[in-house]
Design brief:
The protein is an alpha+beta fold. The chain folds into two domains: 180 residues, Ribosomal Protein S5, domain 2; 141 residues, GHMP kinase, C-terminal domain (Alpha-Beta Plaits). It has eleven helices and 16 strands. A hairpin with a 5-residue loop joins strand 13 and strand 14. Bound molecules: (3R)-3-hydroxy-3-methyl-5-(phosphonooxy)pentanoic acid.
Length: 351
């Protein structure tokens, strides 16, 4: 493809701004969940979390600085963004502009490859790609850790999509200044043994969620009597999860992931009023997962802020797991994902 010439930037060019950049990032699925913020403004979580970045559904985001323009222009999947989606992107760009000391507005064009209405969150891949592209365009010189910190401000889970394979997102120090907390809250890669993991993704409902994860987290932290005990047990889950990953022990990884996710949903069910993302179809898939285990196939489920189920298993069992899941929810769609790459910039011919 043709290399694009960057927008003219005057003095900004001398500070390292490229004027335009394209980045790609993949979604991630948490095996130890992020649920609950201790600071909404800085997006500081209450607990550490750990995820696998996927090798499917990349988001590609292109940004071009538009000196002289009066506002940002944001296109998501070919349509002009508005409302809350636009507000979040503009707020994120404001943060980048403030750090870069550069006021230029931008033209942002972002494409998700999640099949339309697949019902899978794209905020992790979206903000990881936007953070990388915007940092390059505005001339912020960030290493992966700093990029993860920045992506966190767009969407918490995006901090983990900066890295490939398995990543842990540190909550950061609970006491100290805001600057110290911000500095300590970023993701980093997690060492993994011979795991050969796959996630079978069962999309049982492609509709939009009824309660945003932001609102659901807030309500859970504020009102659920189960929240604190889950947060405490999640710390133990993380320690055990790291050991299980290092040992390449898929059974232990799956057991810990499943109990952590079910515990997170229990905290929501106990919130006032309750937040319930799990649907009858979710439970039908969970029954299928139990049957697989009874038949000797290590398969374990995890669910996020929606009814869809991701089943962790060995790559060699993935076809069988996918068949079981497909039979359980004939109307749903099923696909197999493996560990994927971290966020990267595209240059010239890659675009
Ligand atoms: O980053 P957000 O605001 O989309 O929150 C994601 C929260 C969960 O997906 C439910 C769990 C997680 O760790 O990804």
């Amino acid at each position: 493809m043709r290399r694009e010439s960057p927008a003219p930037l005057g003095h900004a060019r001398e500070r390292g701004a490229t004027g335009g950049a394209t980045a790609v990032a993949h979604p991630n699925i948490a095996l130890i969940k992020y649920w609950g913020k201790r600071d909404e403004q800085l997006v500081l979580p209450r607990v550490d979390s750990l995820s696998m970045t996927l090798d499917v559904f990349p988001t590609t985001t292109r940004i071009r600085l538009a000196p002289g323009a009066g506002h940002d222009e944001v296109t998501l999947d070919g349509r002009p963004a508005g409302g809350e989606a636009l507000r979040r992107v503009v707020a994120f760009l404001d943060l980048v502009r403030e750090r870069a000391g550069l006021a230029h507005r931008a033209v942002v064009d972002s494409e998700n490859t999640v099949p339309t209405g697949a019902g899978l969150a794209s905020s992790a891949s979206g903000f990881a790609a936007l953070a990388l592209a915007a940092a390059a365009a505005y001339g912020l010189d960030l290493d992966a850790t700093a990029l993860s910190r920045l992506a966190r401000r767009g969407s918490g889970s995006a901090s983990r999509s900066v890295f490939g394979d398995f990543a842990v997102w540190h909550a950061g120090p609970a006491s100290g200044t805001a600057a110290e907390a911000d500095l300590g809250s970023h993701a980093e890669p997690v060492p993994v043994g011979d795991l050969d993991a796959a996630l079978v993704i069962a999309v049982v409902d492609a509709g939009p969620k009824t309660v945003s994860s932001r609102e659901a987290m807030r309500r859970t932290v504020d009102t659920s009597p189960l929240y604190e005990s889950w947060a405490v047990s999640s710390r133990g889950d993380l320690t055990e999860m790291r050991a299980a990953l290092l040992a390449g022990d898929i059974e232990a990884v799956g057991e810990i992931a499943e109990r952590n996710a079910l515990g997170m949903h229990a905290t929501m069910l106990a919130a006032r009023p309750a937040v319930r993302y799990l649907s009858p179809a979710t439970l039908t898939v969970l029954d299928g997962v139990l049957r697989l285990r009874r038949d000797g196939v290590p398969a374990y489920a995890t669910m996020d802020a929606g009814p869809n189920v991701k089943v962790l298993c060995r790559r060699t069992d993935a076809d069988r797991v996918a068949r079981t899941v497909r039979d359980a929810v004939p109307g749903g769609s099923v696909l197999v994902a493996g560990p994927g790459p971290g966020a990267r910039l595209l240059h010239g011919d890659d675009r």
